[in-house]
Design goal:
This protein is an alpha/beta fold. 29% of the residues lie in helices and 17% in strands. The protein binds 2-phosphoglycolic acid.
Length: 241
């Protein structure tokens, strides 16, 4: 594990771009696993601003999508990705993949996504982490060998995500998520965390053994894992605090 502790959110984002930018410059047809949430927004701004890097042959695969929200819905992750990243890049829309939140047959949609993940081995997977240690929507207790599945969101996740909705009742209760088995298959994994409310999950990830109670700990055995933090997310670490 490469643990990088930076001073600020901006510095965390720059450190992440220091991994992703050179990858895409060097490998024109890279496959990127992307994430939604507040955490990667600074990184996405840096990707959008750098006109020297082309995404014409890049493919992307996202981690998750709310069940029941169509891609056009302003709270869907498909919408988030278009608004915060894709519209600034020369990426082809047909090369961007995300689970279909309104698929008529959810089991079939999970199988479709697994097939996609098999066909598109990711060079890099970007991740945030939930305050309860989830990655994507793999909530505590998810088996490490799970593939794409539908989850019922943990109460803490609904609460955390309600800041982006008008009312907490509007937060969807279920989501499609890439499973832990596929997340760890990416060649390189970059996990970002900023802010004090991530510090305990980060401490457990770094300092405790792998345990499904902390889904992010599925990453511990990964051979090319970057954990990039701001000072607050690192504040409970005994070695660097
Ligand atoms: P956040 O979400 O980036 O909005 O904090 C991260 C996550 O829940 O995985």
């Amino acid at each position: 594990m490469k643990l990088i502790v930076t001073e600020t959110y901006e510095a965390m984002s720059r450190a992440a771009y220091g991994v992703i930018g050179p990858l895409v410059s060097k490998k024109k047809d890279a496959v990127l696993g992307l994430a939604t949430g507040s955490t990667p927004l600074g990184l996405y701004r840096l990707m959008a601003e750098d006109r020297t890097v082309s995404y014409r042959d890049v493919k992307t695969v996202n981690l998750d999508e709310y069940a029941g929200l169509p891609a056009a819905h302003s709270q869907s992750y498909a919408y988030f990705m278009r608004e915060n990243l894709f519209r600034y890049l020369d990426i082809l829309p047909q090369n961007t993949h995300i689970p279909n939140g309104v698929a008529p047959d959810p089991a079939e949609e999970c199988a479709r996504y697994d097939g996609l993940l098999d066909r598109l081995p990711r060079d890099l997977q970007l991740l945030g982490i939930g305050s309860n240690g989830h990655i994507a929507f793999n909530e505590p207790g998810t088996p490490f060998d799970a593939r794409t599945h539908i989850v019922t969101l943990a109460e803490s996740t609904v609460r955390d995500n309600s800041r982006l909705f008008d009312r907490i009742e509007d937060v969807p209760k279920q989501a499609f998520t890439m499973g832990l088995a596929d997340i760890v298959r990416a060649k390189t994994v970059v996990l970002l965390a900023n802010g004090r409310n991530k510090a305990e999950a980060v401490r457990r990830l770094i300092e405790e053994d792998a345990d499904p109670a902390l889904p992010a700990s599925a990453l511990k055995q990964h051979e090319d894992l970057y954990v990039i933090l701001d000072r607050e997310a690192a504040s409970l670490l005994h070695e660097t605090a």
